[in-house]
Amino acid sequence: MKVGIIGGTGNMGRGLTIRLALRHDILVGSRSLVKAGTIAKNLKNVARGFYLSDLEGSIAGVLNADAIEGSEVVIVCLPAKYSLLTLEGLKEYLTPEKVVVSTVVPMTRKEKLFYWTPLEEGEDPGFGERSASESIQEIVAPSPVVTAFQTVPAAYLNNIDAVLNVDVLIAGDDDLALAKVSKLVRDIPNLRPLRVGPLVNSKWVESITPLLLNAAVLNGLHDPTIRVIPWMPSEE
Ligand SMILES: NC(=O)c1ccc[n+]([C@@H]2O[C@H](COP(=O)([O-])OP(=O)(O)OC[C@H]3O[C@@H](n4cnc5c(N)ncnc54)[C@H](OP(=O)(O)O)[C@@H]3O)[C@@H](O)[C@H]2O)c1
User: Fold this and answer.
1) Residue 39 alpha carbon to ligand 1 centre in Å
2) Residue at 229 is within a domain
3) Is the shortest distance between the CB of 150 and ligand 1 below 6 Å?
4) For the chain, what is the domain count?
5) Domain range spanning residue 72?
6) Which tens digits make up the pLDDT trace of 91-123?
7) DSSP secondary structure string for all residues of 90-106
């Protein structure tokens, strides 16, 4: 697949690029072509050196608009605060068949702890009622939005040696879009896509991240993530 990453130069964008490039062609999007080119070149070197002849995909640095135009799946890796305004400025490059993936977690930190703080459009987005994914859906419609990767720390993705072995919760309303995103997730070795219902459930997915971060702060954990384990009755 051709995958464009908006804000692809950041922590999450770089992590997803390096993992997805194993099987897919990645356009690392940025507001700066120079920045995108430099980061794409570095990531390409890492991918070539690590995957060797297993590398099937490619990595190129482009402007955010070109990342959207050149791809069938567009992953939004922008800080929550800037995601809605940035997408307002880029939505003209979307077409209805492109799938938009939101990794966005709208949250704030008060003293030591983290809180889910939903977004609304406006000059100073924040403190709305809907999840970031639903707010993004309103902007990018009719392109379908899929919620994914909120509970996967960028640090895991960027550590190319790390065996991930974690679940990716996926929410959305469009079956075809969900199938595409599930395939992308499965193409990252040891990541498992788990569907958790319609887009309206994104708020529950997004709000797990501040809980995990609070678990880290309060219990001395590093980069906590989730894996859903089925309960099995004891044989005894
Ligand atoms: N970090 C994690 O572990 C993690 C895990 C799960 C989900 N997420 C979510 O992923 C998203 C990205 O997180 P991140 O840690 O990768 O963020 P980040 O590194 O702080 O920023 C990502 C990119 O956003 C662009 N950007 C920054 N300010 C901007 C602005 N004012 N307008 C437009 N673009 C701007 C920058 O790209 P250019 O300067 O190149 O344009 C930057 O490289 C967030 O919504 C976060 O909640 C993060």
Assistant:
1) 14
2) no
3) yes
4) 1
5) 2-219
6) 999 999 999 999 999 999 999 999 998 876 555
7) HGGG--TTSEEEE----
